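Researcher: Structure for this, please.
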Amino acid sequence: MNLLSLKYFIAVAEYSSFTKASEHLYVTQPTLSRQILDLEDEFGVQFFIRARHSLTLTQAGILFLEEATEIVNKCDNLKEIVKSENDKKIGALSIGYQSFLNTKLMYNTIKSITKKYPRIDFSLLRGTPLELRHQLITGKCDVIFALNTCMHSIPNIECINLQENKLQIAVPCNHHLANYDSVNMKDIADEKFILLNRDISPFTVDYAISLCMKNGFSPNAAYYVNDAEKALLLVGTGKGITFLHSMNKATMTLDSYDIKLLTIENIDDELNFVLAYKKDNQNPLISILISELIHPNGE
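Model: Predicted structure, token format:
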């Protein structure tokens, strides 16, 4: 016995006809008849008196109909109770994000929450790492999606690791390093670099330069640009090489730049994609966002 078989039984009882009940339920008549026979076999009683042109309930069938109807109604009410509980989740959550990041995870999470809790509102603020840090500290953003390196040295901030993000090297396809899949930092010490302006992404730029310094050299900057796309265009034309982290949106259209990305050997996870929020933020919707990020679709 299951909820579906109870619903089938109720429909047959209400219509006093297998034919009409099967049309209502959009199932075949043999399927419906089989379900009712299985119920009767399970309980060891006959629920219907079957005549050539009529179908009536037995006394056992009448009693079973009363109980089955109550069970189905309770299950339907349970759905409404759960739904109404979800409807109680109401409020607003302010979210900051960096425009150059591939934030598909963020959008999918917001979409899922909106479906479950339609009365929750989101405000989205796109900004530079410095702008988002300021918005988080001052409370204008409840949470921000950012790179781990942007959150260093901020007191009272909790970071939840979401996705691995690694710094990579982009080289022209005809570059001698393009024959490899990975590179050691010391192998690129003599290269010309195309670097982002520091005021665009100070934390990522500082991280890249610190890697160079740790390996005994200062990058020889041939060009400074304002975004990764310009950097990749210059790399493709042979003007130099550049750093690019794996979650940068520009990596989604690499084929058009005629370049190859190389992983950098033996580097840490300072650039991982994280969700950051203030530990003392009392907005209850933060926990809903975190839960959906960690356990999407209730998994």
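Researcher: Any notable elements?
Model: The chain is about 40% helix and 25% strand. The chain has a mean pLDDT of 87.
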